[in-house]
Structures are given as structure tokens and as C-alpha cells.
Amino acid sequence: MSETNLKDMSQLVSLAKRRGFIFQSSEIYGGLSSCWDYGPYGIELKNNLKQKWWKAMTFRSDVVGVDASIFMHPTVWKASGHVDGFNDPMVDCKNCKSRFREDKIDTTAPCTNCGAKDSFTEPRDFNLMFSTQMGPVEDSSSKVYLRPETAQGIFTNFLNVQTTMRKKLPFGIAQIGKAFRNEITPGNFIFRTREFEQMEMQYFIKPGTQVDSMEEWKEIRWNWHLSNGLRPENLRWKDHGDDLAHYADAAFDIEYKFAHGWDEMEGIHSRTDFDLKQHQEHSGKNLMYTDAQDNNKKYLPYVMETSVGCDRCLLAIMSDAFRIENEGDKENERVVMKFHPSLAPIKVAVLPLVKKLDEPATKLFKDLQMEFKAEYDLAGSIGKRYRRQDEIGTPFCVTFDFDSLKIMP
Ligand code: GAP
Predict the structure, then answer these.
(1) 103 pLDDT exceeds 90?
(2) In this structure, are residues 272 and 296 in contact, taking their beta carbons and an 8 Å threshold?
């Protein structure tokens, strides 16, 4: 039996639609560009991934969770630097009006859309935050933003959490939630979208300990991706070196070898005290930590951040799991999704050999369903039923035959 990996994103997009993982948003209206809906198997997979992350990050005594609101006080985004600095340089093709991120194309080459030469405008800054109005009156004072990252809901709750939970440094706050960015060039399926989910954790530490903390979290996060079944040869580190965001003094990405090439999946950022300092200044609230273990010294904690896009991580997991067995052999070609059992949307399928066994097989299925996400399939040949389960990555299939009756309680 031969086995080939994913070569082209279109293979995955097609399986995802055909088998109810991911659909184009608003498809019956022709779709909405770069917006995607998770179908029945997709949402099981996504929920399993989120639960696994939640467990890994918060089932430890030094990390607690929050679920902050998507809308926040507009000054949050002034303080964080997003109002003034969350921009991508954008160029337009004067001929076909296509818009590109300047840093992603060669502006001296012809337009990749229409082929026109020397057609690009000068780069202009384009703020990536979506804004809307809160309340019935539309004026500038009611302007709010859809959060472009979940992290700020953690920083603004630092004091609430630290005091109510009586946390001592180092400790972390974790959150999973939607984020929105008006990306100039979304694409590659669910890799870069305008609405996505982030799984972020801010670990508050004593200033000066960031190098050790970075090493610790790099190892934890790398191992977590391996625990999801990602093949190590498809993962690598990228050190940002001196090319850093305004808030960071060091940053590393975990990159995955996507069908479109190596690209960022998770960022681990040493954010210094930038965010707490900014929020202290803009809110006027004292966010200092009193260190009882160090002569009651007062200081703003430093922050180690781990930030992974749930959808992007899911794309890596689906890409890694995708295999074609016996490619090109019409009779025997099939897609198999080799998900790690902890993530598989369906854990077990019960497949009675013949209709006559429906009743006892259903009983077994109902018992299994109390504990596991299970499926029952009576339609078609047993081979076809196995193939259906292979395509959605079910790790266990139970063929119920006449011998099974002998071991039924
Ligand atoms: N709080 C830090 C932060 O948001 P980021 O590098 O801009 O840092 C973190 O984003 C992660 O969020 C990325 O590594 C990626 O997995 C995910 N992400 C960012 N923009 C995204 C988009 N437009 N679509 C899908 N995922 C995105």
C-alpha cells in the first residue's frame, strides 16, 4: 500500500467540505470571502483542540482562565498601541484595483493579478482593526473596536485576577476567544482570515527572569504541538532576532510546513512590562505588584506570552493528518485522516455486519455513546463504511458480527 501526504490545499478544502468539516460562510449566497463555518465534524475537532489546550494550560496551579468581552473600552486600544500602530503597508494596482500588502509582494514586478507593469501606488498605512458603533447614537464617542487580539482582555484583568485569586508571581492567565483583523490579503483557507479564534496565555513574571521563562514556555508549547500528533519534521523555530513588535524584547515563532510553505503557527513573545505600563498610564490605576518574597518591592511584572491561532493550528493538524492511500489506483484510492485519537471528532464507530444484528449492535452503540462521541452506520458494504470512518479519522471501528453476540452482556 502506498501513502502520500497533502500536496495542495485544494485537496483539503475539498475533503473538508465533502465530509462536513468546514464550509464556506454564507455559501448559498455565493459565499463571503475568507470567512468559514465549521460543520459537524469540524466543530468536534475544534472543540477537542480547544479543550486540550485549556487543559494543558490551566490544569496547573500557576495558571487560571478568563473569558473577557470582545468589546472593550476604546482607550484600551490606544494604550496597547493598536490605534496608532496596528497597520500594514498597503499598495493598490492602479490597473485592476487589486490590493496587496506591500511587504508580501515585489512592487517592482508586474501585478500578480492582471500583469500590468509599474502599476502600484505608493504604500499607505491601513489599520487592521474593525470598528463599529455601540449604542443608538452614531458619533465618534460611541466608536468601539472588535478586539484584534484576546491578550488585552487579560492585561486589563491582571489586577482583578491577581487580587481575587491571591496569585503570587510567576502566574499566568489563559483565554480562548474570537479576534478580528481586517487583513488586506487573507487566504490559504483558514490560515489567514478576518475572524478567527486565538488561544493566548500571558505569564506574569519578575523582571529579569524572562530568558529562563522563554526557554520554559518554548519547550512546553513545542511539546504540546507534538502531543497533537504533528510530525516533528513539519515543525521548526523562527527567531525574530531584532525584527520585533513594538512591545517585545524577544520573540520566537513555531512554524509549520503548510501546503503553501513554512509559516507561523504560534508566537511566543517576551512582552516586557510594555502593556501593563501603558494601561497603568492610560487608566490611572496602580497596577504595581508587591513582591512579599523580595522585601515588599513594588514593580510592574514582565510578561511571557504564548499565542496560537486555533484555526491555524487546526489547519496544521488537518494538513498533517491528511493521507491518500494508493493514489492513482482507481479501485483502492482513499483518503485517510490520521488524527491523534485525542482530537478525532468521532472516537468510535459501530458497524453491524448485517441488518439482522441491528438491535444488539445498537445497544452496544448506545452504551458507548454515554462516554464517547460515537457513530452508528448500517448503510452499504462494510468496506465502504470503514472508508467513511477513515475519511473523518475515526481511530476505532467495531465490526459487530455473530461472534460479538457471544461476548455481549
Ligand atoms: N497577542 C499577540 C498576537 O496576537 P500575533 O502574532 O499577531 O500575536 C498570534 O497572532 C497568533 O494568532 C498567530 O500566530 C496566528 O496563529 C494567529 N493569527 C493571527 N492573525 C490571524 C489571522 N488573520 N487568521 C488566523 N489566525 C491568525
Answers:
(1) no
(2) no
87 CA → ligand 1 middle, Å:
14
Banded model confidence at residue 141, pLDDT cuts 50, 70, 90: confident
Distances in whole angstroms, Cα of residue 153 to Cα of each of 21, 68, 303? 30, 5, 14
What is the pTM for the complete model shown? 0.94
Helix axes 40-58, 210-227, angle to 10 degrees: 140
Separation in Å, CA 340 to CA 57, 349, 389? 19, 16, 14
pLDDT averaged over every residue in the chain: 95
d(CA 45, CA 52): 11
> Among the CATH numbers 3.40.50.800, 3.40.1180.10, 3.50.30.40, 3.30.1330.60, which is that of 346-407?
3.40.50.800
Distance 300 CA to ligand 1 centre (A): 25
**Distance, CA of 373 to CA of 65 (rounded, Å):** 26
pLDDT band at 1; cut points 50, 70, 90: confident
User: CB atoms < 10 A from the CB of 16, how many?
Assistant: 22
Tell the residue nearest (CA) to atom 15 of ligand 1.
309
CA of 247 to the centre of ligand 1 (A): 15
339: amino acid identity, one letter: F
What gap in Å lies between CA 20 and CA 216, rounded to an integer? 38
Closest by alpha carbon to 304, among 358, 252, 236?
252
Which residues contact residue 64 at a Cβ distance below 8 angstroms, ignoring those fewer than 6 apart?
58, 161, 165, 167, 171, 172, 173, 174
Q: Are 205 and 218 in contact (CB under 8 A)?
A: no
309 alpha carbon – ligand 1 mean position (Å):
5
Assigned C-alpha cell, 311:
484555526
Provide the β-strand partners of residue 337. 322
Residue 254 DSSP SS3: strand
Query: Is 3.30.930.10 the CATH classification of the domain at 3-74+156-319?
Result: yes
Q: Which of 77, 190, 196 to probe ligand 1 with, by most ligand atoms within 8 A of CB?
A: 196
